[in-house]
Amino acid sequence: MARRRTLPFKACRRCKSLVPKEATRCPVCGSTDLSENWEGAIIVLSVERSKLAKSLGFEKPGKYALRVR
Q1: Does pLDDT of 1 surpass 70?
Q2: pTM: predicted TM-score of the whole model, two decimal places
Q3: Quick one: CATH architecture of 9-68?
């Protein structure tokens, strides 16, 4: 059975932003609905130049999870 690594981030269920594990509120949208159960990550440097960021609906540069449960 594969062991899962513990990552130093939680993901916001509302905007999918990755936040430090000790955070209680998302700095991007202000939500307190954070999850440690997320998969995949994308780092957006420029929303204007990234087709992927636009298609996923990210509006600000930052670190985001691709899937949050």
Answers
A1: no
A2: 0.85
A3: Single Sheet (2.20)
